[in-house]
Structure formats: C-alpha cells, structure tokens
Design goal:
Elements: H1 24-31, H2 39-51, H3 55-75, E1 81-85, H4 95-102, E2 107-112, H5 115-124, E3 132-137, H6 143-147, H7 150-155, E4 163-167, H8 179-188, E5 195-201, H9 208-220, H10 232-236, E6 243-244, E7 250-251, H11 267-270, E8 272-278
Helix pairs in contact: 1-2, 3-4
C-alpha cells in the first residue's frame, strides 16, 4: 500500500524504495529477463521458481495475454480508453503501444505503487501525438484515489467505455482486503460497454503437494508481495455480472492465441487463468 509522507514533509518516490524487500513488479521484471531488480527480488523469484520451475514461462505467457487482450479490445471491441492497474516496469509492447498501433488516438492511464515503476513509466510510457498517457502512483486497494485522481479525469472520459486491465495483480490482494469489492467499485464507475481484462495465478493446475502448500499459505495469510492463488471459480467471481468474451476463462496461453507460436505451453506450465468480460 502506498505510504504517505509525514505531514509537512515532501517525500520523493525514491525514498520509498526498500531494496531489502522483494516487490512483485521487480520480481516479475527478473523473470522476464530485465535488469531493474535487486537481490531480494532475485532471491524471492528463485525461491518461487524452485517450487514452480516454469514460472518464467508463466510470466512470458501472461505478458502475451495482455498484448492480445489489448489488441482485441482496440481492434474488435473499438475501445479507445484503458485503465491499466499494476503496470509493472515497462518492457516491450506496453498497453499504450499495442493500443495506439491500432488506434493512434487511444488514451491510457497506468497505475502502480512501486517508485521504480514510477520513474520508468514517466520516462518511457510516452504517447502518440493523437492519444495520451498518464501515470498514477497508487495501490489497487485505493480505488477512490485512482478513480478521482485529477490525472485520470484529465486523460479518460468516464462517460465513454473503458477497458480495466487487471493483469497479474489480483493474486497479490488477499481475501482480507476484499479484492472482489475493489473490482466492483472500479467497474461501477465505468459505463456500459466497458471491459474487464484480468489474469490470475491458480492452484488448480499445480502438482497436489504444491497446490496444498499454496492453499495453506492462503489460509494463514501470505506475506505482503506473495501470491494468493485462487481456483477457477474464485477467479471467475471477478467477472460476476459481466458477459465473458469467448473463449471465457481459460489458460492465458490459450486465450485467443491462434496466431502465437505453436504448440502452446501446457496449462500446467503456466498455471494462470485469463479472461475478458464486457459490462452490459
């Protein structure tokens, strides 16, 4: 959760960087082969890879799902506005790049709570001339701060459809923080014709001993930054009241992946669901 500066003191984003604690965005950057990570992120990433050896494949496939979902929304659904929460450290083919390659006037607001992401985003996530991008320093669990942020209001018209992108972020929100209520609040602010695109790690496809260990961690409350795995029904619950876009809830490696290199990774190599739903 984003920490406010003490009253009367200006806090620079770099003051919030704690290199001794793993952060999901930096750990994900490590799995993708990036250099914007610290030893704590690498140690945490390696520990998770020891339990789930194909986790780098999962990270790559999740990224490809994001790109396909954005392309579908921009090209097939005609969406021109995107709210991407849990941006992560910018890499190739970010949301605005995919969307604006199809629709140069697309407008994107990025949200993340890692100050390293903030620095990279402001430097690298530059819009086309016709479109616009903005970056908000906030936590998914602060929907009011996100929805009422002046930069969001300047960039997006909430009277027109918006694609809410929650890709590989919901599994960092434990049940105690009620992620379903957070998603409902965000969607409530968006008009009919808006979309939710999300992906989520699952224990459904893990080897039984690993799956049980994950369930036990969920029951006991996972440490901050660790993954709260959910089953298919738990993930599908985020789409309650929405019309799922075919093929519905599937492995991120299989969602509209006809143009991807074949054969596709097996579902148990990725162990992550993805889906896109439309608000009626």
């Amino acid at each position: 959760m984003t920490t406010d500066a003490p009253t009367g003191a200006a806090q620079h984003p770099s003051d919030r960087i704690d290199t001794s604690v793993a952060h999901p965005a930096r750990r994900y950057n490590y799995w993708l082969g990036g250099k914007d990570n610290f030893q704590a992120d690498r140690d945490s990433g390696d520990a998770m890879a020891a339990a789930f050896p194909t986790i780098r494949t999962a990270a790559l496939e999740n990224r490809r799902f994001l790109q396909r979902a954005v392309a579908h929304l921009a090209r097939e659904a005609g969406i021109r506005q995107f709210l991407d929460i849990g941006t992560g450290i910018p890499t190739a083919n970010n949301t605005h790049e995919v969307a604006q390659a199809i629709a140069p006037d697309a407008r994107v607001v990025y949200v993340d709570n890692d100050p390293i992401v903030l620095a990279h985003a402001r430097a690298l996530l530059t819009s086309s001339t016709e479109g616009a991008t903005a970056y908000i320093d906030a936590d998914l669990r602060e929907p009011e701060k996100i929805l009422h942020h002046p930069d969001l209001r300047r960039t997006l018209d909430l009277g027109q459809p918006v694609a809410l992108m929650l890709v590989a972020i919901l599994h960092f929100v434990p049940d105690s923080d009620d992620p379903y209520a957070v998603v409902r609040r965000l969607l409530a602010e968006l008009p009919p014709g808006s979309y939710l695109a999300a992906s989520h790690a699952t224990y459904d496809l893990l080897p039984p001993p690993v799956a049980e260990e994950a369930r036990a961690a969920n029951r006991s409350g996972t440490p901050p930054g660790m993954i709260n795995l959910r089953g298919r029904d738990g993930f599908a619950g985020f789409f309650d009241g929405l019309d799922l876009v075919p093929p519905g809830v599937v492995s991120v490696a299989e969602w509209r992946a006809e143009t991807e290199p074949q054969p596709r990774p097996a579902a148990d190599e990725v162990s992550m669901y993805g889906a896109v739903g439309r608000k009626p």
